[in-house]
Amino acid sequence: MATIVAFTTQEKNSHNSHKFAFTLLPMNYGNWKAMIEHFLVFNNLFGYVDGTITCSEFKVSTGDAITDNPSYPRWICNDAHVHMIIISTISKYAFQHVQGDETPLTYLACAQEYATALANIGEHVKDKDLVLFVISGLHEEYNGLKSTLLARHPPITFIELHAFLSDHDYMINKNIPDVPTSQPHVFTASTETPSPNISNLHSQLQFLHNMASQLGFQLNPIAPQSATP
Fold first, then answer.
1. Which domain of life is it from (predicted)?
2. Which of 49, 79, 207, 226 has the highest local Cβ count within 10 Å?
3. Which regions of the chain does DSSP assign to beta strands (E)?
């Protein structure tokens, strides 16, 4: 098995600084696939996607001795780097179809795993750098929380992140209004026909008669009608 060489800082910066033309959406998979494949092939990264650069064994045997394989943590680190490049090109609308929603604990455990892999090859990650790594990877719905965390003094530590992320998710879910079950409205129609008020009708007709007379119209005088016995 070939020896895995860790990506240099210059290589990582070059990959991370690339400006992709667009992100993956539910309706543009074909175009996105062509774009990301060309980038990965050009930068010799596609082997981590199609499996041709396989994960190294955790242990290797040399004669009778079994020792740690230095290529294993390098492969883990390189694979995580490629993984993050791909994720950075996926919109939040399509991300749930690609990987599914992660809980804060799962997301932080993944970040800790990457930091451990780096430490195993002598690239120790400072706590503040790990915090920035986690914050930068949060989705857009966390933008308000990002600003709060970055402005916090003293700076937030990695071990404190779980509580902040969990509280944020709790408040978001709490503020989603419950849709009440609609209750059927009962309408009752009256079958009784209201009897006309003869006195009111006579007053209205008399008023119209007077108005017509003022306008020059001659109308027959209105006489009140007696009720039929």
1. Eukaryota
2. 79
3. 59-62, 65-68
